[in-house]
């Protein structure tokens, strides 16, 4: 279905925690948890995105930010459905690919900010997959 050289390269994860690194709520943190209980903490993204992720998880899907609304409008106009987000490391930053399915086949948008991609996954209640090596590196730390 999706282009992946090794089938086990990515593993499913759920958002287990959303919060802030600092007391002012400027920097967000998300902990992703695999089905077997491994955790991967993600930080160094805006507190605003963390608040959106938290709201979306609680079911508040009204008043979405402009950039997410843009994705929503394009998806509706082109009859696309966001089906999956895959998080990976690119250099020193986390990135994600967004996988859409439509009438004409599949579309993959590559190399987007992982935090925004996870927010979209929370908004659409779709699977988040994380490169397996990120969980392994988190355990080693």
SS strand fraction: 35-45%
Low-confidence stretches: none
> Which of globular, elongated, flat, extended, rod-shaped describes the shape?
globular
Work out the number of β strands: 7
Please report the distance between the alpha carbons of the first and last residues.
33 Å
Pairing-aware structural class of the strands and helices? alpha+beta
Q: pLDDT average, as an integer?
A: 92
The helix content is 25-40%
The number of distinct structural domains comes to 1
Helix segment tally: 4
Order of helices and strands: EEEHHEEEHEH
CATH hierarchy: architecture: Roll
Report strand order across the widest sheet. 3-2-1-7-4-5-6
Q: Biggest β-sheet: count, sense, barrel?
A: 7 strands, mixed
Structural account:
The chain has 4 helices and 7 strands. The chain is α+β, with helices and mostly antiparallel strands and 141 residues long. The protein has one domain (10-140): Roll (Bifunctional nuclease domain), CATH 3.10.690.10. Strands 3-2-1-7-4-5-6 form a 7-stranded mixed sheet. The radius of gyration is 15 Å and the shape is globular. 28% of the residues are buried.
